[in-house]
Design goal:
Shape of chain A: globular
Largest sheet of chain B: 6 strands, mixed
Largest interface: A-B, 88 and 86 residues
Radius of gyration of chain A: 27 Å
Number of strands of chain A: 11
CATH superfamily of the largest domain in chain B: Metalloenzyme, LuxS/M16 peptidase-like
Order of helices and strands of chain A: HHEEEHHEEHHHHHEHEEHHEEHHHHHE
Number of domains of chain B: 2
Distance between the termini of chain B: 84 Å
Helix content of chain A: 40-55%
CATH architecture of the largest domain in chain B: 2-Layer Sandwich
Radius of gyration of chain B: 24 Å
Helix content of chain B: 40-55%
Oligomer: heterodimer
Number of domains of chain A: 2
CATH topology of the largest domain in chain B: Cytochrome Bc1 Complex, Chain A, domain 1
Largest sheet of chain A: 6 strands, mixed
Strand content of chain A: 15-25%
Shape of chain B: globular
Number of helices of chain A: 17
Strand order of the largest sheet of chain B: 1-2-6-3-5-4
CATH superfamily of the largest domain in chain A: Metalloenzyme, LuxS/M16 peptidase-like
Number of helices of chain B: 17
Chain lengths: 453, 440
């Protein structure tokens, strides 16, 4: 009897053990009972207009002894360079790194490093961009230096010739890796003859001929107040920020009459372009029609894309091609929502033997998604992520100045930060399914490298 | 009077040194070390768990097992089945990933502070309950194989980098590729992964880092709640044989049709924190002056005078074994004398590195500390790597003092070691031009 009893108790223990070990964790309960409660990021974005009439956005945060300011001039990026002076905006941005009339390269950089200040410039397709970050206790000297760099730049001939040499080498090395070679071709295929298709290769000839005068003219004519966007964040009051902004940015010319570029005719004809090269893996990039940021379809497509291949390892495409089949280290899609080039772009990389299986699954999944749409659970998972991850964007105060800048570029409105979660919440399953049907039914334009018969 | 007082106060604020990270730490009874970096600017937190195990700890012939196990940690436990780890993190708005290095395997989650307990529960669970199906193992091995093809085989630079590393480190475990070789990946078994997990994944072999909107008391409560019951395995490992004792110079040259521009580099095996802390910080300051900043000696004297297209140095002391120091150059012309360049540049730079320059270099690094207080993700990485190397929190917070204490004499010793005693490899990656180079 005792034997039986102990046998039973062992059995009970085993069963209990199994039950216990197999028990799952109730994560929702964990969150509901957590000592750590939900909070909202409580610093408000403000729009300020300076006494001299310059508009900028500010998030003041006294908890940190740092200030970041990001600025951009519209219609001053690489696509806006004249055909015969392609690359001018890029080289102008690099030339400003040489310092000022008073501070040569060594003195200028020494000053920045000793004061913990960073100043930098760049040009993308549309914009000429700049930023400054400084400890708040060095703000006077820092903004003073930014002023000098912009209005008394050194612009030496020797420095220009060094930049030209560097540029010539970057042209040579553009195609060294299969990935970079593919990126060049992809741009050309999608944008054709439009200035968006410009690369270091197309700029090479004109960069070689650029003069100091070209750069001076560019800085004067293309950086103008009515194309200016500014974002400021950190330990600075609106009064102080306005004072610095007036001191510096009011000196730019008021306006120019540069017209807005015409949008490119995007080549999305569903054909494959091959680059012949022997590689260890085939790399593929593909494109579909997308939406502009302010389009009514944006939020539905944003969520649809997230579900299809935008979310990383939990996306449909990842689950099937990576997590289940092990065909690739990664397959993804993302949205480009530029005013002039709304696209869905995707890509993957895998050994040639896996390519046809991958393509089969990709088109099967796209068809299925376009026809049947997403499930309720998928929509819930996507919304849960997008809503609960909201605060992550505030992790770096310095990065907030860039975010304020981007919000203005995309014309999101000052109240975007308050409204964003409501936009996400309001998307219905029907909205997502309509977007899936509208944007994922087409066959993509594809450019690939490394598939040799 | 008030004016003067205010003036003094404000000057004091101006020159007062900011704290380094403001980190605090404690240990649980099972040996888990927890480091907390409070940062209350935004309601977010970065959790990292650093296991003090990496590629160098792999048994011979089992190359890639540390990395494959890192992937398998996302493939299910007894309580969190299959790939649902990813779904749970996603549902709570978290971003999660992991990486493997020669020395460490690191898992991290970045999420809203209100969801931290989800991440704690998940990490505590997979520290003790890993449970992988045969099918998941096979699939993950295929994924890792594709990862190696993508990251290494498909890049001429990464392929050459592996050759250089192997030449420099020879039979030392730092010579191994982190992914393992293709053959190794194909021969690994599920049991290999389980053995490795059972041996090294234990609270007494890990550092938990919490950086963000949390205070030390809450961190203590929560770390205890989720991790205190996990039994220590008393990881008592034999450290791999790290040290290269012979002073040897190697040379590697590769010509490749994909390469269009000559790249030259020299890499040295040098002391690291645990071996010689004075020389480590000395070399850190020298490298910063010599070739790491936009205003470095190499940049001013070689790049801005048009002698080379680019020149830089890089010091990597964050290793359990020895560190490495490297100099990289993109020359202007084919017959550039790299040997002569390296010797002359190091010697000349050292001659010009006066006490005043040393103090400037110190000041630049100390001035940049204020930036560490901005982004909790950066703070977590920094504090995590130091903690995993064995620094206690006082030592980490004392970082400024280590910098201040560097003497010119230490710098001279460190550079002399480079020039005379360090095992090194000179690496040349060159174009190979021949007809029909694109169709072979």
């Amino acid at each position: 009897m005792t034997k039986i009893l102990s046998f039973i108790s062992v059995l009970v223990l085993i069963v209990l053990g199994v039950v216990y070990r197999n028990s799952t964790i109730d994560f929702d309960k964990i969150v509901a009972n957590s000592v750590l409660k939900e909070k909202t990021f409580n610093k408000i974005a403000q729009e300020i207009v300076t006494p001299k009439g310059i508009k900028y956005w500010l998030i003041e945060d006294k908890q940190i002894e740092l200030i970041g300011l990001s600025f951009s001039f519209d219609k001053a990026g690489t696509a806006y360079d004249e055909q015969e002076s392609q690359g001018l905006s890029l080289i102008a941005a690099q030339m400003l790194d040489e310092g000022t009339k008073e501070y040569d390269y060594e003195k200028y950089h020494n000053f920045l490093d000793l004061h913990g200040v960073a100043i930098g410039f760049s040009a993308d397709k549309e914009y000429f961009n700049g930023y400054i970050t400084t400890p708040s206790y060095n703000k006077m000297q820092a903004f003073d230096m930014l002023d000098k760099v912009l209005f008394e730049p050194r612009l030496g001939d020797d420095f220009l010739s060094i930049l030209k040499n560097k540029f010539a080498v970057s042209v040579k090395t553009q195609r060294e890796t299969p990935k970079s070679e593919l990126a060049l071709k992809f741009k050309q295929e999608i944008y054709g003859n439009h200035p968006y298709a410009r690369t270091v290769e197309t700029m090479a000839e004109s960069v070689e001929k650029l003069t100091i005068n070209d750069i001076k003219n560019f800085l004067q004519a293309d950086l103008v107040q009515n194309n200016l966007i500014i974002g400021v964040a950190g330990n600075i009051t609106a009064d102080e920020a306005s004072k610095f902004i007036d001191m510096i940015f009011a000196k730019f010319n008021r306006e120019n009459n540069k017209p807005k570029l015409k949008a490119p005719k995007l080549n999305l004809i569903p054909e494959i372009t091959d680059i012949k090269r022997k590689t260890a893996q085939v790399i593929s990039s593909f494109a579909l029609k997308g939406v502009k940021r302010l389009d009514a379809d944006f939020y539905p497509l944003h969520i649809a894309n997230y579900i299809f291949a935008g979310s990383g390892l939990t996306s449909r495409l990842s689950l099937i091609t990576r997590e289940k089949e092990g065909l690739t280290y990664g397959a993804y899609t993302y949205l480009v929502t530029d005013e002039n080039s709304p696209l869905i772009i995707g890509g993957f990389s895998l050994v040639p033997e896996n390519y046809s299986k991958m393509k089969e699954l990709l088109s099967e999944q796209m068809q299925k998604f376009a026809t049947n749409g997403a499930t309720k659970d998928e929509l819930k998972a996507a919304k849960d992520y997008l809503l609960a991850s909201y605060n992550l964007r505030f992790k770096s105060t310095l990065a907030l100045s860039g975010m304020l800048n981007e919000m203005q570029k995309s014309k999101l409105g000052l109240d975007f930060l308050q409204k964003r979660n409501d936009y996400i919440k309001s998307v219905t399953l029907d909205d997502v399914n309509k977007a899936a049907a509208k944007y994922f039914a087409a066959k993509p334009k594809e450019v690939r490298i490394g598939l040799i018969e | 009077m008030l004016k003067i007082l205010l003036f003094i106060l404000c000057c004091f604020v101006n020159i007062a040194e900011a704290k380094f990270l403001g980190a605090e730490e404690f240990y649980l009874g099972n040996g888990l070390r927890v480091v907390v970096v409070p940062n209350h600017k935004a309601p977010v937190i970065k959790q990292m768990i650093w296991y003090k195990v990496g590629t160098v700890d792999e048994p011979l012939g089992k190359g890639g097992i540390a990395h494959l196990l890192e992937h398998l940690m996302f493939r299910g436990t007894k309580k969190v089945k299959d790939s649902s780890f990813n779904n749970i993190i996603e549902a709570h708005g978290g971003q999660s990933n992991a990486f493997t290095s020669h020395d460490f395997t690191v898992y991290y989650e970045f999420l809203d502070i209100s969801r931290l307990e989800v991440a704690l529960a998940l990490e505590a669970d997979r520290m003790q309950n890993l449970h992988i199906s045969d099918e998941a193992f096979e699939t993950e091995r295929k994924i890792v194989f594709q990862e190696r093809k993508q990251r290494i085989s498909n890049s001429p630079f990464a392929r050459f980098g592996e050759v250089v590393t192997k030449t420099l480190w020879q039979n030392n475990p730092y010579a191994r590729p982190i992914t393992g070789t293709e053959d190794e990946i194909n021969s690994l078994t599920k049991q290999d992964a389980i053995d490795f997990y059972n041996m090294y994944y234990s609270p007494d072999n890990a550092v938990l880092v919490l950086a963000g909107d949390i205070d030390i008391d809450t961190a203590k409560k929560l770390a205890k709640k989720y991790f205190a019951d996990i039994k220590a395995k008393n990881v008592n490992r034999k450290q791999p044989d790290f040290y290269i004792t012979q002073n040897t110079s190697f040379e590697v040259k590769q010509q490749n049709v994909e390469i269009k521009q000559v790249r030259l580099s020299e890499k040295y095996v040098v002391p690291h924190f645990a071996q010689n802390i004075e020389q480590t910080f000395a070399l850190m300051l020298f490298s910063s002056y010599f070739g790491e900043t936009s205003n470095s000696y190499l940049k001013r004297n070689y790049v801005l005078t048009n002698k080379v297209l680019s020149a830089s140095s890089y010091y990597q002391p964050y290793a359990r074994g020895q560190g490495s120091f490297s100099i990289s150059v993109v020359p202007n012309n084919e017959d550039f004398d790299f040997d002569k360049f390296v010797n002359k540049a190091l010697t000349d730079a050292l001659l010009l590195f006066t006490q005043e320059k040393l103090e400037d270099e110190k000041k630049k690094i100390l001035t940049s500390f204020v930036y560490m207080l901005d982004n909790p993700e950066d703070a977590a990485s920094i504090v995590g790597s130091f903690a995993a190397l064995g620094f206690d929190v006082q030592q980490i917070e004392n970082y400024a003092q280590y910098i201040k204490d560097v003497k010119l004499e230490d710098v001279k010793k460190a550079v002399s070691y480079l020039q005379n005693d360090a095992t090194n490899v000179k690496a040349s990656l060159l174009p190979l031009l021949h007809k029909g180079e694109n169709d072979d």
